[in-house]
Amino acid sequence: MLIFLSILILISSIIYLFLRLKKPSLSALIFKIISTFLIIIYTVIIVYSYPENINFGLIIIVGLIFGLIGDIFLDLKTIYPIESDIYTFLGFYSFLIGHFVYIGYFLPSNTLSIMENSLVFAIAGIVVFLVLATETPMKLNYGRFRIITTIYAFILSFVTVLSLWIGLKTSELSYSIFGVGMILFLISDLILSQIYFGRKDKNWMISANYIFYISAQYLIASSIIFK
Is 32 exposed, middle or buried (0-12, 13-18, 19+ CB in 10 A)? Predict the structure, then answer.
């Protein structure tokens, strides 16, 4: 069943990209929703197959639901450009809440020392500094989204570093897979920043952004299997 769903996710994602590269449309949005919804179903089946991991699975499902909501808002931004800023903010908030939810995935296994947790915060802070410091050199303009971009970049970096660090310390494969998923998420958002704030709406960027994004969601969902 998981293999079948994986194939459906792949097919739906390909159709989405095909439609999106032609032009932003409700048809493309529908297939984007279907792709993320299939990943949620994929996660539900994993939780059903591994009931001992239900607590972690529910966290992932909630995070994915907020990701689905964020998906809708960010595509509506391109379909209805007049209300672009509103949809961008709503997309940011949705994904931000989802990443906050993911922090709960690590709380039971966070055996890091105070120094290690402090380093995780510090690394996330450095990433935020780099994001802001490279705005002009990268010809970006965050404008009215600078504050939410800063908060979002910190939380995303924090979850990424935390998952990888715990994965390395505990040698638990689930956290490492989750961490790799978050790295793909980070790459996806770096590309997205070029599209949104650098006005570089090129087909290869749109494709790369979505491929990294949907792969990230798939890995995050799959991490439950190895818990």
Answer: buried
- Cβ atoms of 87 and 80 within 8 Å: the answer is yes
Q: Determine what percent of the chain falls in helix, strand and coil, rounding each to the nearest 5.
A: 85, 0, 15
SS3 227: coil
Would the pTM count as exceeding 0.90?
Answer: yes
Rounded Cα distance, 79 and 21, in Å: 13
- Residue extents of the structural domains in the chain: 2-226
Q: For residue 170, name the pLDDT band (cuts at 50, 70, 90).
A: confident
Which is higher by pLDDT, 60 or 169?
60
**Maximal CA-CA distance, the chain:** 50
Give, in order, the Cα–Cα distances in Å from 134 to each of 139, 163, 204. 8, 25, 22
